[in-house]
């Protein structure tokens, strides 16, 4: 998904504020009209393969669905090797979480998932 400067800026604003913002507030921050905000949000959501990444709630405003946005960005930019690393990392985290009440040595966990030391 290729975004324009305005679209990226709108997403940045929503990320930084991490709360609901009205179209009027977004328009003031970005120095455009509220109609431009509505059009930009509509365009972003239409181009997104993940569904609406900017959620709108009547009477409350707009917020970024950060999980969908992050998934959309990482999925398109990651190589196969990076995806494999991510899967290994997630498996390690899951194993550590499920073994939390019991002690587990880091070497026992990492050996199964190709653990390497980084200096």
From TrEMBL:
Lineage, opening ranks: Bacteria, Bacillati, Bacillota, Bacilli, Lactobacillales
UniProt cross-references to InterPro entries, sorted A to Z: HTH_11, WH-like_DNA-bd_sf
Protein name: Helix-turn-helix type 11 domain-containing protein
Domain of life: Bacteria
Boundaries of every Helix-turn-helix type domain copy: 6-63
Species of the source: Tetragenococcus koreensis
